[in-house]
Write a structure and sequence with these properties.
With 206 residues, the protein is an all-alpha fold. It is built from nine helices and no strands. α4 runs antiparallel to α5 and α6 runs antiparallel to α9. 33% of the residues are buried.
C-alpha cells in the first residue's frame, strides 16, 4: 500500500476535526486564528530546527510571524497537545522526521491554497514560493515504509486541533472574554473589532 493510501484514514479525520471545519468555513474569529498560528509556529519551529528542510521556501516560521504581526492575539500558553508533539519531534531521527515534513508541509502546499482566502489577515502561512520545486523536494525523499510514522504525525495534528478547539471553545461556542477562564495565563489583548494597537505575541514562549 502506498503512503497516501496508508495515511488516508487519519488524513481525512484531521480534515474533519471541528477546528479544521471552522477554518474551512471562512468564519473563524481573528483571535482564534492567531492562537492556532501561535501553536503552528512552535511546531514548525521544532521541525525546522531539527534537520534542514528539503527546500528553503518551505520555511513557515517567518511567514507565520508576518501573519501574527497583523492579527489581534490572545496571550495564552501552548496547548498540552502542542507541547507533546514538540517533545516528540525533538526525539526524531532524520528518517522519522521526513514523515512529519510530509504531513505538515504538503498539507500547506495543497490544502492551504484553498484556505488562505478564508482566514483573517494576510494568509502568508499558505503562500509558498517555488511551489512545484517544494513538492518535488518533499516527494524525492518519501518512501512507502514511512506510513506508520506519518500516521503518528496525523494523529498528533488531530490531537492539537482538538485541543485548540477545547481550549478556545470549552462550551462549544466562541464567546469573547470567555477564554479568560480557560487557561491560568489567558488574558484579553485588544479585543476591538475596529482595530487599534495590537500587542505582539511572545513567539519564544513554550
Amino acid at each position: 500500500m502506498g503512503l497516501k493510501e496508508a495515511t488516508a484514514g487519519l488524513h481525512s479525520k484531521a480534515e474533519k476535526t471541528q477546528f479544521s471545519q471552522l477554518i474551512f468555513s471562512g468564519t473563524i474569529p481573528e483571535q482564534e486564528y492567531a492562537y492556532y498560528l501561535f501553536n503552528m509556529y512552535h511546531i514548525h519551529n521544532a521541525l525546522e530546527n531539527k534537520y534542514e528542510l528539503p527546500h528553503p521556501s518551505l520555511n513557515r516560521c517567518k511567514s507565520i510571524e508576518k501573519d501574527l504581526g497583523g492579527l489581534i492575539k490572545l496571550k495564552m500558553d501552548l496547548t498540552e497537545s502542542t507541547k507533546k508533539y514538540i517533545e516528540y519531534i525533538n526525539t526524531l531521527t532524520e528518517e522519522q522526521w521526513k514523515a512529519h515534513i510530509y504531513v505538515n508541509y504538503l498539507a500547506i502546499v495543497y490544502g492551504g491554497q484553498m484556505i488562505k482566502s478564508k482566514v483573517p489577515g494576510l494568509g502568508a502561512y499558505y503562500n509558498i514560493d517555488n511551489m512545484q520545486e517544494c513538492v518535488g523536494a518533499i516527494r524525492a525523499f518519501l518512501t512507502d515504509d514511512m506510513s506508520d510514522e506519518a500516521n503518528k504525525g496525523f494523529q498528533f495534528n488531530i490531537d492539537v486541533l482538538d485541543n485548540i478547539w477545547r481550549t478556545l471553545r470549552p462550551n462549544g461556542i466562541w464567546e469573547l472574554g470567555n477564554y479568560e477562564t480557560v487557561a491560568q495565563t489567558a488574558t484579553a489583548i485588544n479585543i476591538n473589532p475596529m482595530g487599534g494597537n495590537k500587542a505582539p505575541i511572545n513567539l519564544g514562549r513554550l
